[in-house]
Amino acid sequence: MCVAHAEPTFTVTILRDRREKSCGLDAQLAALRPTNGTLIVRTNETAATASDFELRFSWRSSEKTPSSNAAPTLVAAEIETARKTLLAAMTDSYPEEVLSRVTTETLPKTQTNCWEVIFPRPRSGVSLARQFRLARRLVLMRLSEMNMMKPLAGTWPTEFRPPRALALYDAEGVGYYGSTLLERAVDETTLDACTVAVCPEDIREGILERCIGVLFPGGTGRGIAEALQPDGVQRVREFVARGGGYFGVCAGAYFATSGRPEYTGMIPLKHDLPWAKGRGTLKVELTAEGAALLGTEFTRFETPYNCGPVFRDWAGAPITVLAHFASPVTSKKGSVHQEMVGTPAILAMTWQKGRIMIVSPHPEAKREFCPLVARAIGWTIGVDPNHVKARIPPVKP
Asked: Which residues have C-beta within 8 Å of that of residue 24, sequence separation ≥ 6?
């Protein structure tokens, strides 16, 4: 007499809020297709289902300022086994000093079928995209160990292909809340797209092939380039050359240009003022082309600025200037950079089959400018700017 063996069940619980138009960790893991057993992905602790194994991911704030060296905390009953698996999942994305800082908390021995990974809440230097990557890899490793699924070539589920996805860079080189602000611009407007947080490893793995555009926030262009490494930079170039959209603000604007040999070099311009030009609130004026594309309600506006690129030698370049600076910035040493007045603040160009839009200041920092930013992003992916307006975001309970 043959005895039927019950198929294994694996529950993943994700305790984190996300914006409506972002493809979060839950959507990424829900695309996994085990060949044996059942994978349950849920975003809260209600309606719990009995499982052979449960893996939880949660986030909590730290008393200390998080940094790139911030490590997760592992909670499990059998700490040594769980820690070994977690460290193995981290090895391709985290340096040794981070691995050595993984802390542990012990669960009662009666909960041997449950592990929890507690991440430091994303802030400056902490990549949410890399945390998601670690979570995907850890789930894949456990599915393989439970004979529920064969290992994948990478960390992205084959079936994860969200419609109209924008790869939102969120890792080294990005400043405080940079990615979050661009995510808000997409989420709180009618732009027909969703964001997917990505890190350098994701780009080198080929995630851009599943996207229609890529977004690079403010921070440091050199930091972005160094994190991507030459292979990642080349993949960005190839993506745009094939027809992908590119939107960059401040550091993302630098990265699109020819200012340094490690940049993409897609825009044939070099910034010609010192990087540390200063920060403040500057006046910006749209050109006629800019008003038609970004909105007549933003013909003249004031926006935060923080050392964004200034191109004085732009005449004759194959670009369209959509806005120019109408006031100068003053450096910490008191130098007034009057020479930047009249130079491009927002510009666009086509490059091979793709479209590029770069913004030197930071309009994304102000909520009222979300439509302007979303229209700029939309242009890179072929969206009619007249279709992009502010929308009332859903009220979270």
From this structure: 14, 16, 18, 132
| CA–CA gap between residue 332 and residue 357 (Å, rounded) | 29
- 3-state DSSP of 84-121: HHHHHHHCCCCCHHHHCCCEEEECCHHHCCEEEEEEEC
Domain limits, the chain = 9-145, 165-387
> pTM (2 decimals)?
0.93
Length of the chain: 397
Assess contact for 102 and 74: CB atoms under 8 A: yes
- Tokens representing 57 are 């991911």
Binned average pLDDT, 10 residues per bin, the chain of 397 residues = 68 90 94 94 75 92 59 92 94 89 85 89 77 96 94 91 95 86 96 96 97 96 96 98 98 94 95 84 97 96 96 92 96 90 97 98 96 98 95 60
- Structure tokens, 187: 């989420």
Chain center to CA of 311:
27
CA 113 to chain centre: 32
- For 165-387, which CATH class? alpha beta
Give the amino acid at 118: I
